[in-house]
Design brief:
2 domains; single chain; Murine Class I Major Histocompatibility Complex, H2-DB, Chain A, domain 1; five-stranded antiparallel beta sheet; 309 residues; alpha+beta; 6 helices
Length: 309
């Protein structure tokens, strides 16, 4: 891009920021450059007491985003954060003071598509399941179709199902909901949980395992797309997440319930396990379904099955 300096940016910002709402004496905004397809802008005007002053909805500050983009394109020194300040002029018809600072904040740099943290999370999960039983080699289902940032529907590179043998039991478990998000800098283990189902090993053949594993992938999609589902399971003990298709009759709903187990050793601490249980409508017949997540009915079904959480 042609030369574009901080002075150029300030000249563009000054007349727009100067159209401040009544009562505003200062303002500060922090904006980031585009990283992994995302940018952000926070801040606003403040009054003499330091309280935020609401902006007129017709007063657009999109100029800040434009200035960040132009200055970033012309910058000789890399930056990813810009802080803009404004002060009301001391005299009527004077010019307000506009300041602009740029810096590089390593803590907001998104994880790249090949960050080793992803495989570190996978190794921690496999070590955990080895303590539970005997994990099968490979994965029952492995759907790693990802975008350029290596994000699947679970927002990290892993979207797959493990099978674990236990005495008389077969477990299917999600492997990837707790992988740190790709293309995002937040220090979190993804969706902060993993799901599992448990079956009588004598009742499942290869086709049955594949069908339940595909369902578990889809349930993982719902959990990943939801807002803090793991938190709500912890809060209520059990919830009804979704309905099943007629293919699963007489089972009609999916229940998620709290499990005492936690996967340790992940990059950003431990995450809880959540038990996935298909239930029949008869198990919640007559129960109140009006509360959040139908939690009362879910706990009733859990108790009838003798599942402790």
């Amino acid at each position: 891009m042609a030369s574009y300096s901080r002075d150029d940016a300030i000249r563009e910002l000054a007349p727009v920021l100067g159209k401040a709402p009544a009562g505003a004496v200062s303002g500060q905004w922090t904006a980031t450059t585009m990283q992994a397809g995302h940018s952000s802008r926070t801040g606003g005007y403040r009054d003499a007491e330091g309280k935020y002053v609401p902006e007129d909805s017709s007063h657009s500050l999109g100029i800040i985003d434009e200035v960040v983009e132009k200055l970033n394109a012309a910058a000789q020194q890399r930056f990813n954060t810009m802080v803009i300040g404004w002060k009301k002029p001391k005299f009527p018809f004077g010019r307000g003071e506009v300041t602009l600072e740029t810096h590089f904040d390593q803590t907001i740099v998104p994880r790249g598509p090949d960050d080793p943290i992803y495989e570190a999370a996978a190794a921690a999960r496999r070590a955990f399941w080895q303590g539970y039983g005997r994990p099968h080699e490979g994965f029952v289902v492995d759907r790693q179709k990802a975008n350029t940032y290596n994000q699947t529907k679970w927002f990290g590179p892993h979207r797959r199902i493990l099978a674990i043998d236990r005495p008389g039991k077969l477990m299917l478990a999600t492997d990837g909901l707790s992988t740190p998000w790709a293309g995002i800098a937040d220090p979190e283990n993804g969706v902060e949980c993993e799901l599992y189902m448990e079956f009588d090993a004598t009742t499942l053949n290869t086709a049955g395992i594949g069908n339940w594993a595909s369902l578990l992938i889809n349930i993982g999609d719902l959990v990943a797309d939801g807002h803090r589902v793991a938190r709500d399971v912890e809060k209520h003990g059990a919830i009804l997440l979704c309905r099943l298709t007629e293919d699963y009759a007489p089972l009609t709903r999916i229940m998620l319930s709290r499990d005492p187990g936690r996967i340790e050793g992940l990059p950003f601490g431990s995450v809880p396990l959540i038990l996935v249980t298909p239930i029949a409508e008869a198990e919640i017949d007559g129960q109140d379904l009006s509360d959040e997540w139908c939690a009362t009915a879910a706990r009733h079904a859990l108790a009838k099955r003798g599942i402790r959480n």
